[in-house]
Design brief:
Blueprint: H1 14-20, H2 27-32, H3 38-50, H4 57-71, H5 74-86, H6 91-99, H7 108-123, H8 128-162
Helix pairs in contact: 4-5, 4-7, 4-8, 7-8
Length: about 180
C-alpha cells in the first residue's frame, strides 16, 4: 500500500495538467502528481530514453529491468518486463536478467550491457573492464544513452520504493505504446 495518497490527475494545474492529458493511467504517474510541474521534466526525460534514444530497445530494456532488479523495485521490474515481452523478448531472456550477466542466454553485447549496468548501479562509476569493451561496440552516443537510462531508472526505482507505489491490478491495460512494441 502506498505511503501517501495517490494524486488525483483531475486536480492538476499548469503544465502538469497538460502532461496528465497525455499520460496513461498508471500509479507511478498518479504518485508523481504531488510534484506539480516537475512531472513535465520527468516525462520528457523518460520519453527521450524510451522513444528518442538510438540505443537498441532490447539492450535498453535489459538495462532497465536489471536496474530495477538490483534496486529492489518490483513495480519497475513488473512494468518493464511487460514492455520487454511486447518488444518480442523471450521469457528465458527476461528471466536471465534476474540471474545475472553470466546467464547463457545472453549474446556478448547483452552480457556486456548486464555487466556494465551492474557496475554502474553498484559502484556509480563503470570500471575500465566494463566500460572499454562496451564503448567499442556502442560508440559514444549510445554509451551515454545507456548511462542516462541506468541513472534515470535508478531514480525511478528509488521513487517507487520510497513511496511504495502499488502495481496495478491484474488485467489493467497500461496504455504504454513504444516503437517496436507488439500488441
Amino acid at each position: 500500500m502506498a505511503r501517501i495518497p495517490y494524486f488525483d490527475p483531475a486536480k492538476a494545474e499548469g503544465r502538469a495538467k497538460a502532461v496528465y492529458e497525455k499520460l496513461p493511467n498508471l500509479n507511478i504517474f498518479r504518485m508523481l502528481g504531488h510534484s506539480g510541474d516537475m512531472i513535465d521534466g520527468f516525462i520528457k526525460l523518460g520519453n527521450a530514453i524510451l522513444i528518442h534514444s538510438e540505443l537498441d530497445p532490447v539492450l535498453r530494456e535489459i538495462a532497465i529491468v536489471r536496474t530495477g532488479v538490483l534496486r529492489g523495485s518490483k513495480y519497475e521490474v513488473y512494468q518493464h518486463e511487460a514492455i520487454s515481452r511486447k518488444l518480442g523478448m523471450s521469457e528465458e531472456l527476461i528471466k536471465a536478467i534476474h540471474e545475472g550477466p553470466e546467464a547463457r542466454v545472453f549474446d556478448e553485447t547483452q552480457r556486456q550491457v548486464m555487466r556494465f549496468t551492474d557496475d554502474v548501479v553498484k559502484n556509480t562509476r563503470a570500471s575500465d573492464a566494463t566500460f572499454n569493451p562496451l564503448a567499442e561496440k556502442l560508440g559514444h552516443k549510445q554509451l551515454q544513452e545507456l548511462v542516462v537510462t541506468i541513472g534515470f531508472y535508478t531514480l525511478v526505482s528509488n521513487f517507487l520504493e520510497t513511496f511504495d507505489v502499488d502495481i496495478e491490478d491484474a488485467g489493467h491495460k497500461s496504455g504504454v505504446k513504444l516503437p517496436g512494441m507488439q500488441d
